[in-house]
Each structure stands twice: as structure tokens, then as C-alpha cells.
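Hi Y.,

Following your request, here is the sequence exactly as I used it, all 732 residues.
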Amino acid sequence: MIPTLRVSLAFAVALLGMTLTPGTARAQRPHPRLQGVFPSGGQAGETVTVQTSGTDLEGVDALWFDHPGLRAFQKKGPVFTIAIAPGTPVGHHDVRVFGPLGVSNPRTFVVGNRPESTETEPNNVPEQAGTIALNSTVNGRMDAAADVDCFAFEGKAGQRVLLDLEGARIDSRIDAVLHVDGPSGIEIAEGHDFYGSDPFLDLTLPSDGRYVVKVHDVIYAGSVDYGYRLTLHDGPHLDSIDPVVVAPGADRRATLIGRNLGGVLDPTLTVDGRPLERLEITLTPQGSTDGILPGPWSSVTASRLGTWQRLFGVSAWSNPVFLAEATDPVVLETEPNGPDQAQAITPPCDVFGRFGSPGDVDVYRFSAHKGEVWWIEVQSERLDAPADPAFVIQKVIENAKPQDLATGDDLTDPTRAGNPRFPTSTVDAAVRWQAPEDGTYQVVLSDLFGSQRGDARFAYRLNVRPERPDFRLYAVPDDLAQAGALNLGAGGRTSLTLVANRLDGFNGPIQVEARGLPPGLSADPVLIGPGQFASPFVLSADPGILPQLVALRLVGRSLSGDRKEVLDYVPGTSKVRPEISRDALPGVLVWPPTPNVQPPSARARITSSLIVAVGSSAPFRLSAQPAHRVVAPGGSIEIQAEVNRSPTMTEAIQVAASDLPPNVPAATVAIAKDANSVTLKLTVPANVPPGNYSFVLRGTGPFPFSKDPNAKTKPNVNVNEPSNVISLSIYK
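Below is the corresponding structure, written out as C-alpha cells. Let me know if you'd prefer a different format.
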């Protein structure tokens, strides 16, 4: 869980001291869009000068960070000096820009613990290669198409060095390729797609001399969006941890698996032919600090629970590896456990295993009674491991071939409610299974591409558990243009989309409310109805609220049928269920969906905070009444839409119903330029599933605006504001 973040006092003072012109369309389009910060990191205890790039950054004069150990001072325009205080947590931090147009989406800024440098152009050919020192990080960027960056280092024969390039992991567009040329000028290694699309190389140098590292995008693309961080080191590097799933609480023994650990070389463990070590440690999980993310946390892995672990080396720390939180007794895989030597397990249990070599198939056998319901789930991608697990559940028959009963494969977002804003589909596998009779059963587990691959990185977690209804909750953009920033004008409203990831058959209602809002901000609780996956959430600002930056906390709780506020409450018969409470994790689009690609997909991730910037007066405020309606399928309702305009909002406003229940046809009306209200009628066809729904009205209209507040003439731009949330109960 990511806790509420502290907002830098210096930043808040700077924000409140800004001059705000009444009527400026702040929090409207255009708004800041941060594409990159270069260089994209620095060493703890040092200062670094960075340049921001993006769109609509006019007037930007402040950077916001998710930790008070990071402070920025503007030098000129888009250039800032960042002071990184000693002790600032090492790892991935969020940075945003702020200015007269509002707050931007976040980008990743990395705090490291090795010396850092920045590439110097030109360095496109080996003769121009800049120097990269061992145990240091260089920040580079593919500034234009066909760009190639070259770096040189001095090496000794037999020396083992590691090259780790972070690109996609730090929000960059680069799909990087690494090449290493030896002293003779002949290429000795190439790396690509090790951590997702990011490359990693482990080399034992063949001779003394000068080595050249070449970096380029796989299709030689380039722009200010193509930054990267390349680390050359001979320090510790973690490939896995044994076990990868542990019970929370007390310290316990574990085994780190990786390179340069100072442990014992294990000839049975290799990755790409390179030997690995084992190092026994007392496990003290290193959780996030004040919401800081030690490593990347994509939308695909958002549902996991756990923390990170590093090895603290003499000169530097290792990379982080994810450590999952066990929900049941942990069982370690015991090889051999193939089809002829199945390993016995007793559910419920959390099994840690790995596909250690090509062709590895693991079989786990257990007893079950007729009618028992078990959820059988395998995680690998959500552990940051590269396996694509699949399994078959079989009935074990004495002196006969096992009988296939069920299969588990890729998990797809059942409604794609969060897509393309927050894709959560994964290649991990799960299935709900009910034992047809008393007997012995087995799970036959393999990697989908296991005939061609398998090593120490291919870890998995097999969880066999009784049905435990639960959910995860995400707060994601409802506007692809904003993609992770909430900007709100005084007297106006802004909105986001809540996405519920329902687990283990949980089908109940989820009520979501904001906690700890400051004076002047308000939000009505919303209900994600039974079986539904998404709902709009609206934040409103009072007309007189002062400019400020707020970290929102949204909390969802399940509403059991035994509660009287639930519409399906039946005294004496409603099933009593324990309440589940989950904080909404904030999600952002890293890059918007690729145009003309079906189905649409986008890179998205968890961010450390849900930030809203409150600015000057909104162009208008749209309200809808009544806020709650009940209707039978086949009926209709009328909603009164009222607008409170700013003095310069004089044109007609188009009003459309948004986020409607399934099968409800779209409806639009216009509030004429000389009117302040209109009635919108919605028909509810007979085929609309009964239930509780939430929707909003969205008003769009032309508004005179200029990025220059002193401009004599201001052209019209389209602005959009949501209404308050309308709850709709559809029952026969």
C-alpha cells in the first residue's frame, strides 16, 4: 500500500505565492505535459542540473517531488538545479512540473548511490566515445533519429563487469540495444530485451585494453523522449530470491541469487550461460518509504502485494527484487517433481518454484473432497519474472492416465474497464476449480515457451487457496490528454475513473470516498455496483478556495448485504460478510495509446501519489439534479443540468451523459448561450442489467483563453467540465 505523501513546504509556499489572474482557464486545456527530465537521475548527496521537456510548459517555474529530500531551483526557463539530500531513498521518484497552466503528469527521477555523469555529444562513433568509469552511471539520450551513443572504459583480462541500461523502466520511449566492442574493435557482446525491453550484459573481459559500449534504439528512433541511464559496475546484482514469497512479519532466512554477491558460486544456476552465486541472508524486507517506489511498478503488476529487497554492498547497493506477501503457508519446490515424481502439497499453501531449465515441468499433487472450491493461481509476470505460466488440473487415476479437468492460462481484464488508460491483463494464470468428487488431484505447471528457455530468473508462485473474495482499486485518468494530472479551477470540478479489480469471485458493491480533504474541496462518495468494474469520481472546489497542491487519498470499502444502506438489504436473510477496505492506488499513463492499433494499449504504471492542483476560477460549473434516481428497465428519467458561468464564458455549452450503464443510449443537449439550464432525458431499455450505477454529465464549450494572461485578444479553446456524480438504481 502506498501511504499519503508529504508535500514539500517550500513548494507549497512557492505555489501560494504565484500570481493568479481571475478567469484564467487554468486546469483546462492546454495543460502541462511532461515528456522527460534530462538527465533522469542523480546521486544522493549531490546536485544535478536538468532540463525539462514537454508541451504547454510556458511559465513553468517549479518542480514537485514525492520526497522532501529532493528540492529544485529554477535557473532559467526549463532548466532547474535539483539538490538531492544525503539519505534520500535510493530508487524511483516521481517528479512533476508546475506553472500557470497547472500540474503535469509524473516522470521518473532516479536517486542512485554511484557517481553520475551525462553524455557529451558528439559521441556517435568510437573515436568520439566519452569515458564511463567503472561503478558509475551515465545519463544519455537518443536526441534524434539514427543517433548512436558511444562510451569507452578500460578493462582487464578476466575482469567481470555488468552493464545495466534503464530505459522503459524510467518512463522512456527507448527500446535500447547495447553493443560492446573489444580492444581489437570486434564486437564481443550484444544485449536487448532482458528487463522487458531494457538490455543487461554480464561480461568477462577477454583481454586488457579499451572497450567501447554503443547504445541505440532498436529501430534507430530518437527524440527528447528517448532518455536512458547506463550503469557499468562490478558490484552486486540480484537475479532472484529464494523464496520469492514470504509471510509478513518476523525476520527469516532467505537466499539471494545473483552476481558479485560475495556468496557461493552455484554451477547449477546460470542465466544466458553466466554463472550465479547464492548468498544466505536474514531477510529484512525493504519496503517503500513515504510511497517511494524502489523499482518500476507497471499496471500489469498493480494487483500484487509485497515489498522489495536489495543487497547492501560495500560500495553500492544492488538492484531491487520484488518479494511477494504470502497469504498461506509457504512451501518450497523440491526437485525432481515432474510427471513421474509429483510433489505432495496440502492446500491452502503458497508454493515457491522456478522453471530452472528448458523443458522443466513441475507437478504438485493434493487431496480434495467433493464440492470443495479452490482458487489455483500462478504468478510470474507479477513477480517481475519472465515466465508465461500455464497449468492443467488433473484427476489422478490409479494405473491409468490422469484425466484433464481444467486449465489455467492468461488473465484478461474481464471488461477492459481500465483500458487503454490502465491495462491490467497479464500472462499469469488462475482458475476457480471445484472438486467433482473425493480423490487425488494434481496441478501440472509449465512455462508456455518452456521448451526453449528456463533459468534462475523464471521464478513462480503457485497459490492454492479457498475462495477469499477481495478487490483492488485504482484511480486512473478519464482523459487520455491529461494522462495522470488533475487540474481543478476554483468553483469548478474535475474527474477521474475508479477501476475495481475483483478477485476470487467478489461481486459486491464498493463504496469509495475521499479522506482528509482540505477545506474548500469536496467529493461525494460513489458506489461501484455489484458486478461492475468502473465508476467516475468527481472532485469539486469552492469558488473562494486558494491555489494549492493536494495529495488525494481515496478509500474503497465493500458493502455487505447485511448493511441497511445497501439497496439489496433483506432483514434476516442478507448474508453477513466481513468488510474489506482498500486504498485506491493512483495510476498514470506513461505514454498514450499508439494510434490506429487495435485493441488499444498503452504503457501505464502505479505512481506514488494522486495529485490535484487547484488554480484560478473555472470557466463554468455544471450541476445535475436530482443526484439520485430510481427507474425500472424500459423506463426513462429526466436530469436537470444547470450551469454557473464565469463572466467570459458566454457561448452555448454542449452537455452529454457520460459513463452510462450498459445498453443505455447516449444523450446530448445544449444549454443555449442566453440560458442557464436544460433538461436531459435518458431512456433505460429493458435489456439494461439491474443494479446501481454512477454517471456524470460533461459540458463542453468555447472559452476565450491565451497562455499570456495579459493578451489583449484571446482565441476560443474548448473546455470541458464534469457535473457532480449522479447515482442511478435500476430495478424491476
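Residues 1-28 have pLDDT under 50 and may be disordered.

Thanks again,
Q.
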